[in-house]
């Protein structure tokens, strides 16, 4: 093996310098890898909220907020103040988002705030809760609290 | 391209390798920087729910974030909570852990990374525990697609 290498060195004689072509090959492959990964990447976003009972009330003169209850059943059916909206199959909940948007606009007109309480049934899927949160953020409602179990 | 540098007197335009490497390296660094930041956070055991309207995380806020991973085990019919690579089978153990975390960083925010198949009751339990630990700011993690 060593004698062979020796021979080779003699035959080529020079050019032991830095090889640019294989380096470009490698850089290209690494770049392609990152380009492909960049397209498939899943960005993790978040719905920010505060736990109930910790929101500071600025002053006692503010009118009581309009309370809206959203109930989520085990099968995924969503009720807004006891009215069923959308079907469990619809993920985007357009009816709910529209209704919430109207409610927010009307309470903005009367200068009161909207407070939404989500009552999720024990076996309701978390995915559905996030769907409702998504509809709420589309309707630009930030005041959201949670309640365990169904409303009385 | 024809009037590019190089070539010299022969009139043949020569391919310049050095600027090409410069460009390639810049592209490489660009793609490296946009992927690495996101890939690290994804925990493959948890399938996050999809929510296109969820807000992007503010880099200022994300310094104070603590991930609370809630994995759903279909066979056991139970959720498993994992915080800072530590499994907590008993949620009561988490309360002092959260309290201590809050002492160290009063601005701490708990990011609940729940599996989409989780029943809501499991999330409620975790939220209760976070509240008992004195942490008021919470976020629900969701994937963009």
Description:
The complex is a heterodimer of chains A (152) and B (145). Chain A is an alpha/beta fold. Chain A contains four helices and six strands; from the N terminus they run ααββββαβαβ. Chain A has helices spanning 2-12, 20-40, 94-109, 126-138; strands at residues 44-50, 66-72, 78-80, 83-85, 114-120, 144-148. Residues 1-5 of chain A have low confidence and may be disordered. In chain A, α3 (94-109) packs across α4. In chain A, strands 4-3-2-5-6 form a five-stranded mixed β-sheet. Chain A is elongated, with a radius of gyration of 30 Å. Chain B has a domain at 59-140: 2-Layer Sandwich (Nucleotidyltransferase, domain 5). A five-stranded mixed β-sheet of chain B has the order 3-2-1-4-5, with helices on one face. Chain B has 145 residues and is an alpha/beta fold. Chain B is 35% helix and 21% strand. Chain B is built from four helices and five strands. β1 of chain A pairs antiparallel with β5 of chain B.
Biggest sheet character of chain A = 5 strands, mixed
What distance separates the N and C termini of chain A? 86 Å
Q: Can you summarize the main beta sheet of chain B?
A: 5 strands, mixed
For this structure, what is the CATH class of the domain at 59-140 in chain B? Alpha Beta
The SS-based structural class of chain B is alpha/beta
C-alpha end-to-end distance of chain B: 41 Å
How are the strands ordered across the major sheet of chain B? 3-2-1-4-5
Largest interface: A-B, 44 and 53 residues
Oligomer: heterodimer
Alpha plus pi helix count of chain A? 4
> How does CATH name the architecture of the domain at 59-140 in chain B?
2-Layer Sandwich
